[in-house]
Amino acid sequence: MIKAGIKWMFLIIGTTIGAGYASGREIWQFFGHESGLAILLFAIFFMICCAVIMYVSYHHKSNQYLPVLKEIVGIRLTKFYDFMIFFYLFSVTVVMIAGSGAMGQAFNFSKWWGIIIIVIVLILLFMKNINGLLSINLLIMPILIGGLLFILMKFINDQDLQLFSHWHEQRNWATVFPFTALNILPLIAVLGAVGDKVKTKGEIYIASIGSGLILGVITYIYNNSLIQIADEILLYEIPLFAILKDYPFEILIFMSVMLWFAILTTAASGVLGIVTRIQENFNQPFSLLVIVTLLLMVPLTTFGFSQLISVLYPLYGILNLYVLTRLLLFPLWLRKDRNHKLR
């Protein structure tokens, strides 16, 4: 149970920590100054949402997200959110692929090298269906989380920063709602595709609580680090590089590789959600659908990485507020339904 729970936990974290999050761009887009309370609420809301999504997918034994979506938003709104999830997954995967291109540019290579490499790796990854994604998450996520925490804590120590010095200033708390809403939509798609593989409720508790705690801690430390270099962030496509600029070249290379793997795992999660959704409509092999999907995405990567995040992410965060509300209140509605059936 514990091993399976950790496997799902890393799948959740791998879906969430992508180009936008791991680079710092997404965190800075929503948080910044006076956001400590918002980040604490995010960790709590995230745990609840993951637990509800996993519970519903486990209950339905689903292998794609549509049954889960129907129960969360209701039959009337399913078509709208089905389209939105699909478009979201498609566009965010494009952002991930563009992020790989931005990584290439950071090292003075053509962005097309970064794009071509990630597309090839994604195709190879899905030759084994979902097992390839689960395996790479188990391998990469602990290294990425450890490396990111090490760099951020080193930066905080070198700058002699106090993590809780401004805790009384919390006027930015409301950003928790669009930020959490943004991050739970892809989880409906990804966790909806593995409901038939979850064996016990214990796995759900381990995955949801563990992922919420880890992401809450990283987000808080990362945000406090970015506040110290707020004036320099505008000069960097990837804010993490502003933190790393004074560190040895070896650390820059290591974190760049880890950032690329974060981009890869989130892109893979997006592809998984898309292909599992359309597979029942197209009687074609899983790997072929992956190839066609990726080829359709490549031309759209000509938009800038930070431009895509600055426009799409806040928009999705606002549109998904209804889904977030349904997830947070789902335990109350479930109890109400049970009481109604008992009468």
Automatic annotation (TrEMBL):
Record-linked InterPro entries: YkvI-like
Residue stretches spanning the membrane: 38-59, 80-103, 109-127, 134-153, 173-192, 204-222, 251-274, 286-309, 315-334
Range of residues in the leader sequence: none
Keywords: Membrane, Transmembrane, Transmembrane helix
Listed PANTHER family: CONSERVED MEMBRANE PROTEIN (PTHR37814), MEMBRANE PROTEIN (PTHR37814:SF1)
Protein name, entry field: Membrane protein
Organism taxonomic ancestry: Bacteria, Bacillati, Bacillota, Bacilli, Bacillales
